[in-house]
Amino acid sequence: MKESGGLEQRRRRRRWFCCVLCILILVLLVVTAVVLALTVFKIREPTGELVSVTVSGVSPRVDLPALRVELNVTLDLAVRVHNRNYAAFTHAPGGRTSLLYRGTQVGEADVAPGRIPSRGSELLQLALAVEVDRIVAELGSLLSDVVAGAVAFDTVTRLPGRVTFMGFIKRHAVATSDCHVVIGVSDLSVRSQDCTYKTNL
């Protein structure tokens, strides 16, 4: 009788120990999931920096019927994009950068598809076509800026793509950036830039 009572007591202890162990494992899994959600799996906006600007081409075009001269200038931009996430970001076709002068869009460039590794960077080379005739309305302001030695532009960039965690968890994302950039006239150096970033999932 005592042996059967002791055996039953040991069984109850084992069951209690198993229940406690299961609860501890469940709590540990929940804590791990919360930590991962707040750190590794939290989507952070990629950041960008305009590294250099060069003029690669000037193409005048004369429209005889309208008696109008159009001038297009091509700017080669080098933009470094840094991925702050613990996941790779693959940007798909359809990426685009628009250039604005005093609120008017004066140029645009396509962004080629690519892949930015986790916690890594990619240098994007953009050929941005500036349509000078679109600046005619602001010609007085542009001349004043040139005489002052610096021209301020705004850029809007949109990169659709997907974020890949651990090689198999994939989520669609669209990274956007809005930058205010001041370019020196004499040497085309980047005097200053201020950007805001956003990622939509």
TrEMBL record:
**Which InterPro entries does this chain map to?**
Lea14-like_2, LEA_2
Looking at the record, the residues that make up the Late embryogenesis abundant protein LEA-2 subgroup domain are 79-174
Which Pfam families does its entry note?
Answer: LEA_2
- This protein is called (wild Malaysian banana) hypothetical protein
Question: Could you read off the lineage of the organism from its UniProt record?
Answer: Eukaryota, Viridiplantae, Streptophyta, Embryophyta, Tracheophyta
